[in-house]
């Protein structure tokens, strides 16, 4: 394979996704982290249940159509991206900027992703149980 073909292949989308109305469309051109389930109160309120999110390096996220993308600073540590037209939650971006989380349900299937852990399990809703056998952290996972 030539250098040009290698460069072109490295630019191919690993995943594509969009909001409910397709006003915000994006692709990921790099590796995705396994899906993490977050049960914190903010994710539960933002998603209506709990959040299921993957993540990528910011430079690997390419917005194809983003005129309706809106950002809400939900806390001092992060902001949340959503579609201003249909309201779909799409992204969670920490202030440190080392990654951007992507709501896994916004990705086109097949994703090839698997879930890896539950965060803020102590804050989960009282109407469900976590019984899938994945590791559970009462709060955030310890730093790596």
Number of domains: 1
* Strand residues, percent: 25-35%
Mean pLDDT figure: 92
Number of helices: 2
**Spatial separation of the terminal alpha carbons:** 36 Å
Uncertain spans: 1-10
User: Under CATH, the topology is which?
Assistant: Metal Binding Protein, Guanine Nucleotide Exchange Factor, Chain A
CATH class: Mainly Beta
Shape: globular
Kindly describe this structure.
This protein has 144 residues and is mainly beta. The chain has one domain (3-123): Metal Binding Protein, Guanine Nucleotide Exchange Factor, Chain A (Beta Complex). 10% of the residues lie in helices and 33% in strands. The protein is built from two helices and ten strands. It has helices at residues 3-10, 41-47, and strands spanning 15-18, 25-28, 35-38, 51-56, 61-65, 69-72, 78-83, 89-94, 100-103, 115-119. The strands form two sheets. The chain has a seven-stranded mixed beta sheet. Strands 1-2-5 form a three-stranded antiparallel beta sheet, with no helix packed on it. The longest helix is centred in the first third of the chain and has 8 residues, at 3-10. The chain is globular and about 35 Å long. Mean pLDDT is 92; it is low at 1-10.
